[in-house]
Amino acid sequence: MGLIDIKKELKKLDKDKFIDLVAEFYKKTNQQKEFFDFYVNPNERYMAI
To answer: For 48, left (φ over 0), alpha (ψ -120 to 50), or beta?
Structure first.
């Protein structure tokens, strides 16, 4: 499976399912959490715990 396949599957999700998926991804590792924290507020500095 590649990025094109992932994008196709993500486009099939309704907004609530997509938000749930992002929330689950956010909780998985500190790297993913830091990525989303920076995405939401790029002017803040986030450190891994």
So the answer is: beta
